Amino acid sequence: MGEREGYYVLMLSLHGRVCADPELGADADTGGQITYVLEEMRALARDPRVRRVDLLTRRFADPRLPPIHDEPVEDLGDGVRIVRLPFGPRDRYLPKEQLWDHLPSLVDRTLQWLRETGEVPDWLHSHYADAGFVGVRLAQLLGIPLIHTGHSLGRDKRERLLAAGEKAASIDRRYRFARRIEAEEEILVESSLIFASTRQEVERQYGLYENRQRARFEILPPGVDLARFSPPSDRRRPSPLLVHLRRFLQHPRKPPILAIARPDGRKNLQRLLEAYAGSALLREKANLVLVMGHRERLGALEAGAREVVTDILHGIDDHDLHGSVAIPKTHGAEDIPEYYRFASQYRGVFVNPALTEPFGLTLLEAAASGLPVVATRNGGPQDILRNCRNGLLVDPMEPAEIAHAVETLLTDARRWQQASRAGLRGVTRVYSWEAHARAYLRRVERILHRERKARRRRRMVLEQSPSFLPKADYLLVCDIDNTLVGDDGALHQLIDWLKTQPRVALAVATGRNLEQTLAVLVEHGVPNPEIFITDVGTRITYRQRLHEDQAWAAHLRHRWWRDGVVEVLRSHAELRLQEKAAQSEFKVSYYFEPQRPPSLPVLLKTLRGKGIAARAIVSHERYLDILPSRASKGHAIRFLCFRWGLPLDCVLTAGDSGNDLDMLGGGLRSVVVGNHAPELDELRGRAEVYFAKAAYAGGILEGIHHYRFAGAKDD
């Protein structure tokens, strides 16, 4: 029996230890976001309109971690799968800050995987900035909608860390804020829809971004698993956790002040300990229970987590809190609901003191367990407490305010009972995954209806492989000026090699137009290649009858307005339009003086303000090309490979300047010729980019032998 009809959704969540049963709190990247994504997938898959939901994440084989992370597919049942593709070091788990350099290769691996499966998703949904970076590029290449959920935002996080006394240079280096924020700005422009959990997230957190006005937001809070999180069924029966907690607590039946969070400075657990230590009433009436992920040995924790746990241990000792504070080293997945029930049974309070909380899923879990809460006023808790009315908001920087709020709930039995009941009612009414899925699909279906013509074009591209594509197993793609041409002797050696390689098709990728390209190839005695990628990747033409790929042209029209580009940039005195021969439908080309380079962020922001989705490419420190956001040499090559069904590891690219940048690396094997421009030096050190010593076509030949491309022998 075939698969049922319905939508195919591809989600992307790249960092952390993603699996069906994640070890939450195992490190800073394995937390609530993973739970959110897994629950959202399952809820969508339960809707009859959806036939399958795949979650794309990283595949790695770290000997220190469970082997499940090296499994290419993990079937969760009921139309839900985790699909793992390798990117970055194969044998090592990486924190999210170290993934950025490897993300372009995931774009290429995903395209190849989708081509092999023969199916393109109806939409992509990226989670967090790293997945959004990949999602933007996939959506551009596939011509499908991108939905995005931020979970946490770089600008907001940076402000909070600075307010907490961190040094700007230190946090920028540690968290890669420049790359993250740049990606988040791009996501705002390129996404079809951004889901935010709360209105505060849109107004306060996204409000820090320049492109906030260009984005389309919908408020969609997550749900909570009401079958898993529930109040204690029998308050008279002792909690099963009592035995375990007696190791820490002298009087384990005192009301517990419970916090569940990974040991991360942003979770602000040290101030919660300070609030408890500073309140004589709390020390007398309550215990403090801190569930901070897993740790086998303190020394084995990552530096940031180790610092937090060490601070907590010192705080317990400094304030002589032994016998009043529990810090269990580990827990099972089913222990978490039991901790909430334990705190509810003994009339405790749950506290989320994070510096900022994008949403606050733990607050919903507490509410579903009948447990009142005290929460940071920064972020999503404002909306949750407005809907559930089950606690108090506090300034997380003020330990005395945290202590007073906890005291208020613990010492007023009537207020505690009211908050407990209100939380149960609110979470049932507002926060269920079924309601989430219905609202999600209602909003996305509006997007699909609006973009239905583009979806039809996408199906055509996938299902019809053009007959004019070359019948070859390998593709060599070369820039022309200063790469293919420049040394006639080396060029003719390369041509002679190609004549002996019937399985290799030649393509050229150039900033020239087609007429100029044909002329320069004739001038240098180069036989016509199989494919011409001209005008900086904005035009694809095949040798057979010089047929232009109309599907590519239609793909580029997305939010492109050529006359608008010329009009908007007319006021920029540092730019001078190039001659008419250098212009085309999808390319506006300028000169500028090297001593007066334009500010690309300013140019693009100005264009975005007029609704124009564009990219800017600088080459040889004097030429500027403005293109549609979906256009580039690299995108054209990937579009061809996807349509052709050619694996990306059967492609070799060669270039020398900045307008070749995005066709070099990623999943493509690439060579930078010896006479390259300085703007390509940023590619040094990447495994898939070879810097040749020889110049021009000699460098191409050197790269061919280095990679043993198409069976070439290494010299």
UniProtKB/TrEMBL annotation:
The keyword Transmembrane does not apply. Its EC number is 2.4.1.14. Residues 31-223 form the Glycosyltransferase subfamily 4-like N-terminal domain. InterPro entries: Glyco_trans_1, Glyco_trans_4-like_N, HAD-like_sf, HAD-SF_hydro_IIB, HAD_sf, SPP-like_dom, SPS, Sucrose_P_synth_Pase-like_dom. It is an enzyme of class 2 (transferase). It comes from the Bacteria. Keywords: Glycosyltransferase, Hydrolase, Transferase. Residues 474-708 form the Sucrose phosphatase-like domain. It catalyses: beta-D-fructose 6-phosphate + UDP-alpha-D-glucose = sucrose 6(F)-phosphate + UDP + H(+). One of its GO terms (molecular function) is sucrose-phosphate synthase activity. Belongs to the glycosyltransferase 1 family. This is sucrose-phosphate synthase.
